[in-house]
Write a structure and sequence with these properties.
Number of domains: 3
Number of strands: 21
Strand order of the largest sheet: 6-7-5-8-9-10-11-12-13
Helix content: 25-40%
Shape: globular
Largest sheet: 9 strands, mixed
Bound molecules: adenosine-5'-diphosphate
CATH superfamily of the largest domain: Mur-like, catalytic domain
Structural class: alpha/beta
CATH architecture of the largest domain: 3-Layer(aba) Sandwich
CATH topology of the largest domain: UDP-N-acetylmuramoyl-L-alanine:D-glutamate ligase
Number of helices: 15
Radius of gyration: 23 Å
Length: 444
């Protein structure tokens, strides 16, 4: 056993969410000295009293650990830079933990703009179905990285851009890029810096002899595949078109020119999920599994809550919870997956162009029920394209949609809000649970 480089150093861990607390727990095990801080928490957490950035003795702090997503302009971050502290993220500490372990699980890492959680959960489901070893999903999805059990055979980890930005040593056995949307890139100061941070995962995995599964559904993914396929024979392209070695088209899977029928479960409806299926199968093949076994396991994927989640079918009505769709592009996928739906939209809208949403709603013959703080924004954006009923809240919108569907021939009541939930809920999960509760009460 090597000596852990974290031993006896002093860490200021800022942001005490799930990931921050997992870091604290791990550092305690390493006998590090720990100071904690948080913008909102003032009471003791796990025996540590949160300390304000101006109250600590910076002279003793060796390492600053920001919560994923803590902006670099945050006073604690700025001060840590001024004091020349080493800055380590959770992922870097996880990478060290894995390197130091005598026997570490193998890792499949998933990143990208959209479809990360679905792809991660699907990989974990497929691997769990076809291998005898223990498979644990975590990172951004499920367990924090530093809480994932070390006696598992595989870790399947979802990594956000924030986690990847702060690492220099992490390499996985299989690295998966779902896609890299331009919209997402636009929100970052420098596209090059954003690309560079993500690309390090693939560079490091490539140098480490790992396998790469690259979604070639956009220009960035395609460029990366072209580059990496020149550097390693262990890169595969995945997607929806024939340019990808593994792709899904017309409900079938194509692997290196051979076609296989797919039994696609309800939880993976929609074209975008074809991408996620191709990525997940690509990752599981790269991890050494047999294709025929993976294909049999696909049909039993239960799906993730709040992502095109099928809640109930009763009589002529079907209910789908896509509360996770917090922007217009996600909702466009849902509208295409469930054409003709009675669509519940609204909440706290994003400052984005809603014209594509309106066009997609029209093409898919959706009937909109706008609710929440920004109901008016959606009424304005949609009413020239589709019928829109304005409602004060989700409950009223739900009942109005059900009543209208019952008057017609039935159909799908789809919650896909294209908005954040914070106008009325603590998060998108609470909004989805509310919807599910309304469905269950109606169906009882
Ligand atoms: P992430 O973890 O990257 O946020 P999720 O798997 O949680 O992605 O899916 C969130 C929403 O994003 C889904 O409800 C769906 O509308 C959309 N989505 C999922 N997969 C894709 C994909 N491959 N391409 C584009 N959009 C997707």
């Amino acid at each position: 056993m090597q000596v852990d480089p974290l031993h006896h150093r002093c860490f200021y861990v800022y942001g005490l969410g799930l990931s921050g607390m997992a870091v604290v727990g791990y550092l305690e095990d390493q006998m590090a000295r720990i100071i904690v801080g948080d913008d909102k928490i003032n009471d003791d957490v796990a025996g540590h009293a949160p300390q304000h950035v101006d109250d600590i003795d910076w002279g003793v702090v060796d390492v600053f650990v920001p919560a994923p997503g803590l902006p670099e302009t945050h006073p604690a971050y700025v001060r840590a830079r001024q004091e020349k502290c080493e800055i380590l993220g959770e992922l870097e500490i996880y990478a060290w933990k894995m390197m130091l372990a005598d026997e570490a699980p193998r890792i499949i890492a998933v990143t990208g703009t959209n479809g990360k959680s679905t792809t991660t959960a699907l990989i974990a489901h497929l691997m769990d179905s076809v291998t005898e070893g223990s498979i644990v999903a975590g990172g951004n999805l499920g367990l924090p990285l530093l809480k994932m059990p070390m006696d598992a055979n595989w870790h399947v980890v979802e990594l956000s851009s924030y986690q990847l930005d702060l690492q220099t040593s992490f390499a996985s056995d299989v690295a998966v890029l779902t896609n890299l949307g331009v919209d997402h890139l636009d929100r970052h100061g420098s596209v090059e810096a954003y690309h560079g941070a993500k690309k390090k995962l693939f560079d490091q995995t490539c140098d480490h002899g790992g396998r790469l599964v690259l979604g070639v559904v956009d220009a960035v993914g395609l460029a990366w595949y072209q580059e990496f396929s020149g550097r390693t024979p262990r890169a595969k392209s995945v997607g929806l078109g024939e340019d990808a070695q593994i792709h899904v088209a017309d409900g079938q899977l194509h692997v290196d020119g051979v076609t296989y029928p797919l039994d696609i479960p309800k939880s993976l409806q929609g074209r975008h999920n074809g991408e996620n299926i191709a990525s997940a199968i690509g990752a599981c093949l790269a991890a050494g599994n047999e294709l025929d076994e993976l294909l049999s396991a696909l049909a039993s994927f239960p799906g993730l809550p709040h992502r095109l989640e099928h809640v109930l079918r009763k009589g002529e009505l079907e209910f789908v919870n896509d509360s996770k769709a917090t922007n217009a592009s996600s909702t466009c996928h849902a509208l295409r997956a469930w054409p003709g739906s009675y669509w519940l939209v609204g909440g706290l809208s994003k400052p984005e162009d809603l014209s594509i949403l309106a066009k997609t709603a029209k093409e898919t013959s959706a009937k909109a029920f706008a609710f929440g703080k920004d109901a008016g924004v959606f009424v304005d954006a949609l009413s020239d394209f589709v019928p829109v009923t304005q409602c004060p809240d989700l409950e009223k919108a739900f009942h109005a949609a059900v009543a209208q569907a019952q008057k017609g021939d039935g159909g799908t009541i789809l919650l896909s809000p294209a908005s954040a939930s914070f106008d009325a809920y603590p998060n998108f999960m609470a909004r989805g649970e509310h919807f599910r509760g309304l469905v269950e009460a109606w169906g009882a």
